[in-house]
């Protein structure tokens, strides 16, 4: 049940209509839990057992940790939770990848391995809810949170349908109190939710799905038939596809939750306006990057162990972050690249003269600042090329074309660039306006004609600019 | 917020009204379909050609034929036309059905908005749903297409805008589509196909001599052996394989096309003569 389908909105209409008829939080939560399981079961009912198992394990372990006084017992229990969750994730998501690689490696050294592949379907959203439940038990272990008393409330925290399959990865400190406590909803919630949903649908349907057509063409064409300009334009298209797709999903999730009286975290904050990799990661998939910071980078030592250890921790965090996205070498390479970018920029910031020069350039005026933003965007895009590539060979070939003299401007390149500008430029201008106002809800405070112009533009685009085939959200596979 | 909503609604209503008022001027497709269905009802010809723009180009200059060839149509559009104009088809002695790729199989894509808007009724959605197992979204798409002109014309408006705004829109998208078709060809070839809907169309036309033609394109495509098996028991149906018509006869087959799939005037003259002769019309 994709967010960009009529079926989902029919489902949502029933959910919201019944929900607001129920007066007690208990009944509302029961209804939402039922709907969340129906929503998840609609992908494949067999996945329900897995999410239930994860819920049961973490519910009881979290209570065990809370009750236990001895540090060793607490440690043992939290380790059990981490191992169980990561084993489930490992079996379903990474088993095939590692077995294939191991078989290949053993064959290389002359052995005849026969480790069987299980051919298991990857349960939708497993990486998201696994990380969500892990953060819950770890927070309780760290005494930063109390365990949830009611099993069904906890089950709703794990399976809350707006953010179940592609995040944001909600912390228990934010979402659980909203589930347990009394929720208030007013007329403003509907306006706010509608704004999120309309913006999210625009990003997904108008931006991402149209970019997908260009991206699929470039990445499916043999590299020998592509010019460097086509590769660059195809990669720009992918940058906006993945942004529109994921930020769009997160916004729709936030809007749907708002209609139910919940406030989900912001997952994106205009990431392509970043000037450095650390700023980018503070703006892109914020729920994952902050998760990796709090539960991986800092426990590894963060920046407390000196320069070399900081770089090691950055690299390790980003490689694991890359692997979180999928079981494949392009993701590992993407993680390595992101780690390397963070390290190189950190080294650069340490060289006073260079840092001063860069700061002077950026502060020289808005034009220079936008030039710097555009410059850093190129680094981001090279990362996206690694992420999107079909294989390691394709990465090597595309990179070599980028460093060759094959810079022909083809009809396709002009066509694709025009389409990218036509669709994304209004969005980027709008985001720049929001960025300048420093208020994400600035649009809701403008006059009625301006608001009508915004919704009119969104509706007309949603009507006219829908590609023939609906595209699945990219992050569902993670 | 209410004022903004009212203004948006007003904008949509104005769009809907504008399309209804200027429909004929705006869309060649709507006018083309209306004219073709009108001609079908009034026809005194003996021969009818069912197809899409492939055959519209091929028979453009042929006389004494009734053309039912809506752009981009396929099996389900032809099914809807034969269902809703059953009596009109009874008058024809010869029926020529032209197709390419998998346009005769049950697996062929349905253009729901076209059927909903021009060729059928809202009730058809149940009928088509039974055949294709239409999803909830496809049914909503169909129903919206049958009640709203904005919905019905959205793809055409988009194409029009893109052709104005984007550099070489038609040639670039055509080459992108051709590349995508080539990539999925292997998958499509391997897929098992069924022909129940085609059998229904042929059953409605069982009084006539029917010629089914696999049309020539610049790129190759396979003829499904299951299609030939399905046609074999039908005594009134002959199958013409003209996929390589130009390739087999001429060193430079591209000279007969205006693009990857449509023939030019010279190609049309040769191809229509061949088809009409072998169908026993000339």
- Uncertain stretches of 5 or more adjacent residues of chain A: none
Q: Unreliable runs of chain B, pLDDT <50, ≥5 residues?
A: none
Largest interface: A-B, 31 and 34 residues
* Overall mean pLDDT of chain A: 91
The largest β sheet of chain A comes out as:
none
Tell me the strand percentage band of chain B.
5-15%
Q: Any idea what the radius of gyration of chain A is?
A: 23 Å
The string of secondary-structure elements of chain B, in order, is HHHEHEHHEHHHHHHEHEHH
Shape of chain A: globular
Order of helices and strands of chain A: HHHHHHHHHHHHHHHHHHH
Look at the structure and give the mean pLDDT of chain B. 87
Question: Which class of secondary structure composition applies to the elements of chain A?
Answer: mainly alpha
Roughly what fraction of the amino acids of chain A lie in strands? under 5%
- Strand order in the sheet with the most strands of chain B: 2-1-3-4-5
Number of strands of chain A: 0
Give a topology summary.
The complex is a heterodimer of chains A (478) and B (282).
Chain A: H1 6-19, H2 25-41, H3 47-67, H4 71-108, H5 126-141, H6 151-159, H7 161-164, H8 172-180, H9 187-220, H10 228-259, H11 277-283, H12 286-297, H13 307-325, H14 329-350, H15 352-363, H16 366-388, H17 392-402, H18 411-437, H19 448-464
Helix pairs in contact in A: 2-6, 3-4, 3-5, 3-6, 4-5, 6-8, 9-10, 9-18, 9-19, 10-16, 10-18, 12-13, 13-14, 14-16
Chain B: H1 2-21, H2 23-26, H3 28-42, E1 47-50, H4 53-58, E2 65-68, H5 75-84, H6 86-89, E3 94-99, H7 112-119, H8 124-132, H9 136-147, H10 149-165, H11 169-190, H12 196-204, E4 209-214, H13 225-231, E5 237-241, H14 245-249, H15 265-278
Parallel strand pairs in B: 1-2, 1-3, 3-4, 4-5
């Amino acid at each position: 049940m994709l967010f960009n389908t009529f079926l989902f909105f029919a489902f949502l209409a029933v959910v919201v209509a019944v929900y607001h008829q129920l007066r007690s939080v208990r009944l509302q939560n029961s209804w939402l839990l039922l709907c969340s399981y129906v929503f998840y079961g609609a992908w494949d009912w067999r996945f329900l057992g897995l999410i239930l198992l994860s819920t049961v394990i973490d519910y009881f372990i979290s209570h065990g940790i809370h009750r236990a006084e001895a540090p060793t017992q607490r440690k043992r229990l939290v380790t059990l939770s981490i191992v169980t969750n990561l084993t489930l994730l490992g079996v379903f998501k990474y088993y095939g990848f590692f077995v294939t690689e191991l078989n290949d490696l053993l064959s290389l050294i002359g052995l005849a391995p026969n480790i069987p592949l299980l051919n298991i379907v990857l349960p939708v959203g497993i990486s998201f809810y696994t990380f969500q439940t892990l953060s819950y038990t770890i927070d309780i272990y760290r005494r930063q949170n109390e365990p949830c008393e009611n099993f069904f409330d906890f089950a709703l925290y794990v399976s809350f349908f707006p953010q179940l399959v592609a995040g944001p990865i909600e912390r228990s400190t934010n979402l659980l109190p909203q589930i347990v406590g009394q929720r208030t909803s007013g007329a403003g919630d509907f306006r706010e939710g509608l704004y999120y949903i309309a913006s999210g649908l625009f990003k997904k349907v108008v931006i991402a799905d149209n970019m997908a057509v260009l991206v699929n063409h470039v990445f499916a064409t043999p590299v020998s038939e592509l010019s460097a300009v086509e590769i660059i334009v195809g990669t720009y298209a992918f940058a906006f596809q993945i942004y529109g797709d994921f930020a769009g999903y997160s916004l729709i999730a936030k809007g749907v939750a708002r209609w139910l009286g919940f406030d989900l975290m912001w997952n994106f904050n205009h990431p392509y306006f970043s000037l450095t990799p650390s700023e980018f990661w503070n703006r892109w998939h914020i729920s994952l990057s902050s998760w990796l910071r709090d539960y991986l980078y800092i426990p590894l030592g963060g920046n407390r162990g000196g320069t070399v250890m900081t770089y090691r921790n950055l690299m390790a965090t980003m490689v694991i972050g890359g692997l979180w996205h999928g079981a494949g070498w392009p993701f590992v390479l993407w993680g390595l690249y992101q780690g390397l970018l963070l390290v190189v920029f950190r080294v650069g910031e340490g060289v006073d003269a260079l840092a001063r020069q860069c700061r002077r350039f950026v502060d020289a005026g808005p034009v220079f600042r936008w030039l710097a933003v555009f410059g850093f965007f190129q680094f981001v895009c090279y990362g996206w090329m690694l992420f999107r590539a079909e294989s390691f060979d394709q990465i090597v070939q595309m990179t070599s074309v980028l460093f060759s003299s094959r810079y022909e401007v083809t009809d396709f390149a002009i066509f694709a660039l025009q389409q990218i500008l036509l669709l994304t430029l209004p969005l980027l201008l709008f985001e720049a306006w929001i960025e300048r106002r420093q208020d994400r809800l600035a649009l809701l405070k403008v006059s009625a004609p301006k608001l009508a112009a915004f919704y009119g533009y969104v509706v007309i685009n949603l009507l006219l600019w829908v590609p023939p085939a609906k595209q699945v959200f990219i992050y569902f596979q993670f | 917020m209410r004022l903004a909503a009212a203004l948006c609604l007003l904008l949509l209503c104005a769009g809907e009204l504008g399309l209804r008022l200027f429909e004929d001027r705006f869309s060649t497709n709507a006018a083309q379909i209306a004219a073709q269905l009108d001609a079908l009802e009034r026809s005194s010809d003996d021969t009818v050609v069912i197809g899409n723009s492939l055959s519209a180009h091929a028979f453009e200059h042929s006389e004494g034929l009734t053309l039912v060839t809506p752009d981009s149509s396929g099996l389900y559009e032809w099914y809807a036309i034969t269902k809703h104009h059953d009596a009109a088809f009874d008058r024809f002695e010869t029926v020529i059905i032209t197709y390419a790729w998998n346009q005769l199989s049950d697996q062929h894509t349905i253009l729901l908005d076209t059927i909903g808007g021009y060729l059928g009724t809202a009730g058809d959605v149940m009928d088509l749903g039974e055949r294709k197992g239409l999803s909830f979204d496809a049914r909503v798409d169909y129903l919206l297409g049958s009640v709203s002109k904005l919905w019905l014309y959205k793809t055409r408006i988009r194409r029009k805008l893109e052709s104005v705004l984007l550099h070489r829109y038609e040639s670039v998208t055509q080459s992108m589509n051709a590349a995508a078709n080539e990539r999925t060809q292997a998958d499509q070839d391997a897929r098992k196909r069924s022909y129940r809907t085609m059998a229904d169309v042929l059953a409605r036309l069982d009084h006539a001599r029917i010629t089914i033609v696999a049309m020539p394109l610049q790129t190759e495509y396979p003829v499904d052996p299951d299609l030939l098996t399905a046609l074999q028991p039908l005594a009134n149906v002959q199958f013409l394989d003209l996929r390589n018509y130009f390739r087999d006869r001429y060193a430079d087959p591209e000279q007969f096309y205006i693009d990857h799939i449509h023939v030019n005037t010279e190609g049309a003259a040769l191809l229509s003569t061949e088809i009409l002769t072998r169908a026993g019309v000339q």
